[in-house]
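Reply to dn_fold:

You asked what the input looked like. This is it:
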Amino acid sequence: MSGHVDGVAQVLEVSGDARSLRLSIGVPPPLARYLAPKGSVAVDGVSLTINAVQAASFGVNIIPHTRSSTTLGAVRVGARVNLEVDQVARYLARLLALPAT
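and this is what came back:
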């Protein structure tokens, strides 16, 4: 992650999941293509592993340390969060879009 904000997303659901906090986050449609299960995403500057991806949303789990050490432990449904997608996914999309030479 590089610290760039690619877009603003919205927290759709917050729930407990064992010892972690499960967040479902709605993503702007142009950024959804860069998200993959077990891929990386940064939410409000915190690098996280994506657990699940739907058409226009994704899910992450916030472990206890991250929950207590970042602002993500206090996030609520409806909150707007900054989103940074994985740079490798952006590079791959760019390379696949280029004509073969």
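Strands lie at 7-17, 20-26, 40-43, 46-49, 52-53, 57-62, 80-85.
Hope that clears it up.
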